[in-house]
Amino acid sequence: MAAYAKRSHQELESLKKALEEEYAAHKAKGLSLNMARGKPGADQLDLSMPMLDLVNGTSDCRSADGTDLRNYGVLDGIAECKKLMAVLLDDEPENVIVFGNSSLTIMYDSIMRFMTFGTLGSTPWGKFENVKFLCPVPGYDRHFAITERFGIEMINVPLNDDGPDMDIVEKLVANDAQIKGIWCVPKYANPCGITYSDEVVRRLASMKCAAEDFRIMWDNAYCVHHLNANVAEQDQLLDIAIACREAGTEDRYFKFASTSKITFPGAGVAAMAASPANVKEVKDHITIQMIGHDKLNQLRHVLFLKDAKGIAEHMQKHAAIIAPKFELVLKMLEEGLGDTGCASWTKPRGGYFISLNGPDGTAKRIVSLAKEAGVTMTGAGATYPYKKDPNDANIRIAPTLPPLAELEQAMEVFVCCVKLASVEALLAK
Amino acid sequence: MAAYAKRSHQELESLKKALEEEYAAHKAKGLSLNMARGKPGADQLDLSMPMLDLVNGTSDCRSADGTDLRNYGVLDGIAECKKLMAVLLDDEPENVIVFGNSSLTIMYDSIMRFMTFGTLGSTPWGKFENVKFLCPVPGYDRHFAITERFGIEMINVPLNDDGPDMDIVEKLVANDAQIKGIWCVPKYANPCGITYSDEVVRRLASMKCAAEDFRIMWDNAYCVHHLNANVAEQDQLLDIAIACREAGTEDRYFKFASTSKITFPGAGVAAMAASPANVKEVKDHITIQMIGHDKLNQLRHVLFLKDAKGIAEHMQKHAAIIAPKFELVLKMLEEGLGDTGCASWTKPRGGYFISLNGPDGTAKRIVSLAKEAGVTMTGAGATYPYKKDPNDANIRIAPTLPPLAELEQAMEVFVCCVKLASVEALLAK
Q: Using the beta-carbon criterion (under 8 Å), do A289 and B45 form an inter-chain contact?
């Protein structure tokens, strides 16, 4: 079968007619399916149910040092939980601060503090006429929403297979002191699934920044979220802390992680890791903001996940559930679109997303067609700052939430929509 | 026995010698006791242990509307928990937003938003050269710490037996547009234990404010924290929301409450209530900051506390434990200091504190003497903005944490310290 672009006008017209019929048939089914957000499925959540029995009405509720975890206090998290979260953050427990159930909140609050108070003696960012942030694209919509809300100007930087395009990044940060930071999902990136190479991590750590208080927001959301239990099939990420220490820029990074996609998105534990100076400053701020986060939930997580081995074993159970979903999506994309030449997509080894690029100018149309047929995708443009995909081409596919049978139905619809929108675009040329 | 002030120099000298001997004897015991913070005792925390069994490994974990509470979402709290927290907030569920485990964080974030974004179209407070807040004194140190951190100038206002001195408040807010708000603990106030009268609540609601975006931070931390189960012995507070609606100032107040001193300080649920316009604005902000707070903990609280009746019954169990502690402290103050004329103190019907005023210029000395003898009190001055008690007279007594026997020991030391410092002060005149 010839690629769409090589077909005649007449062939495309009859193809369009056939696709419209197929689309109408899908629509007639009255589906209501959702591939919009990176949410674990109910069967994944069931994996962590035993955790809820570990702190119960007969529990001692004390930490190893004797602290009554039911009461006030312990600003930065119980020692046991700092140790656990240090595994996810690839750091030492003393560099970890444990927070509530949301790493997004930690990031929002971090940006808020930079804007309001500055950091390590620097001018509060809010005092400047203009502050800018680098945003590797496509990227995570909720990151972009934070910087947008604080009035920070966002600059798109292409995300390559090994991370952000560092030639562009280095040039930008070297010459513009208004650029104060960069959003990074360094491992199994949202939505592309790529992992930053060691070289990219080192260049981020060592690049010359015009802004002395340039900060890397290192959102390692998918740190242990491999699709394959075989270590040879897992991506490895160089620790940004090590790279920064080697480069003499140890205050440049803030690492974030959570158990949202390990235990429960609605009742997990989130944490940050940073340099000693940054940890000290953050603690000095949060001691005004709160007395201590939920320590019983910290204890639950410690007793359930235990350590690196416990986490890895638990994540294999997740992989056993979601890897078949990724395989199904990739198979259906290949079978449905492989020879059409109208889309390319990523084949991640971990994380929660597949990123698809259709023909320029079709993403909104594809998502809208799917929506009309009862399949909700992440909004077109959501993977770009200001929700503006300059090419209107990128679509994020989130395969984890629907059960396999529903996912198959949803993907049938989606593939049909990609084809239809692609043919429409070719005919409109 | 004559009041200290009426005694001769010689009498005071010999009294001082006797007190110094008593003090030395206390010190020799090597005590380590703490009356510094309003923390529930372990026996109070035990009351809520059954809550930990209500959401367990076999639970359905769904809300009434079928939402899987383990997963992402539900920005403003599950319907059942909004209803529960509405009891504490004396409001309708639709005006409630449920947050994490800390009302302090809600308050900090509220001030942060006012500073950064303004409210309901007003200029962000951070854009002004100077912003001021009224602080009824003595008051809650953590409130003052928030406004201090954001660079807001704090103005002391005397707290009378029926609330802040409204003649002073009305005059200040009418003439100074830089005054943007007031901190209030309207019921069983920290540390005085008084409850605002209906008249004070109405005057706060209806007073003319030069700042259109003047805000009342209504921290109803002790809303159901009575010391007596008999309703006739409980304080009643007029709802600020009703008063503001009547006065046509419905956007003026933000109410805060939590279950920190109902279930677990370390693992409770906190919430705010506000006008529809304010609720809408806050939701629009927090949707950038987070996806949803811990809904399993919300469910736990709903299943455990149930409703207003459930809360009241549970609070009676707390009262049964802490009322004897308040009685002991009051008895020992009366017996030890009653006829000395050198101190006055409050006799609250609820809350967590007793507020004591010693002779001017002695509070720091008293607290320091107690500390040296192994009894930690709240720092002198802590009940005032900038930790500056202009009279150096006020001390907050927190009787709830120590078991009764320890409390008795601690109070023996404390009473001795008050006497000794008072005599010292008289002799130095």
A: no
Strand arrangement, sheet containing A394-397: A344-345, A354-357, A394-397
Residue A429: pLDDT band with limits 50, 70, 90? confident
Own/partner contacts of B44-49, CB < 8 Å, gap of 24 or more, are: B44/B318, B44/B321, B44/B322, B44/B400, B45/A61, B45/A68, B45/A70, B45/A71, B45/B264, B47/B314, B47/B317, B47/B318, B47/B321, B48/A70, B48/B262, B48/B263, B48/B264, B48/B304, B48/B314, B49/A57, B49/A58, B49/A59
* E strand segments, A351-392: 354-357, 375-377
Nearest to A264 among B50, B70, B116 (CB): B70
pLDDT band at A2 (very low <50, low <70, confident <90, very high): confident
Asked if ipTM goes beyond 0.95, one says yes
Contact assignment for A58 to B49 by CB distance below 8 Å? yes
- Min Cα separation A206/chain B (Å): 30
Dump pLDDT digits (tens) for B141-184: 999 999 999 999 999 999 999 999 999 999 999 999 999 999 99
A101 CB within 8 Å of a chain B CB: yes
The answer to whether residue B314 neighbours chain A at the CB level (below 8 Å) is no
SS (H, E, C) B65-134: CCCECCCCCCCCCCHHHHHHHHHHHCCCHHHEEECCCCHHHHHHHHHHHHHHHCCCCCCCHHHCCCCEEE
Q: Collect all residues of chain A within an 8 Å Cβ-Cβ radius of residue B116.
A: 112, 115-116, 126, 150
3-state secondary structure (DSSP) of residue A354? strand
- Whether A104 contacts chain B with CB within 8 A: yes
Residue in B74, B267, B293 closest to A70 by CB? B267
**How close A304 gets to chain B, by Cα (Å)?**
12
Res. A240 pLDDT band, cuts 50 70 90: very high
The predicted-structure confidence for B52-69, as pLDDT tens digits, reads as follows 999 999 999 999 999 999
Please choose, from the candidates B136, B115, B134, B119, the residue with its C-alpha nearest in 3D space to the C-alpha of residue B176. B134
Give me the total of CB pairs closer than 8 Å, taking one residue from chain A and one from chain B: 160
* Residue to test with chain B: of A43, A105, A106, most B Cβ within 10 A: A105
